[in-house]
């Protein structure tokens, strides 16, 4: 099951309906955020009749290789020493 950077779980709709959301690996389908178990603590703060997307959020996800640097902070890099490059030209072949 894919996780996002906030730790939310995501699964495709068919795996959610089939109670297989923890084993979902369908990255080619639209994914839906899995709500936390239990009753929600608060309701949506938007007024009734206002168009909001608080209830359902969908995303397309792409599997990443383990250890990829997409979400990780960039490591501190050492300044690169500039080296002089000498070009040697020869006449003809």
Automatic annotation (TrEMBL):
The keyword Transmembrane does not apply. Keywords: Copper, Metal-binding, Nucleus, Transcription, Transcription regulation, Zinc. One of its GO terms (molecular function) is RNA polymerase II cis-regulatory region sequence-specific DNA binding. One of its GO terms (cellular component) is nucleus. GO terms for biological process: intracellular copper ion homeostasis; intracellular iron ion homeostasis; positive regulation of transcription by RNA polymerase II. The keyword Transcription applies. This is Copper-fist domain-containing protein. It comes from Penicillium thymicola. The lineage of its organism: Eukaryota, Fungi, Dikarya, Ascomycota, Pezizomycotina.
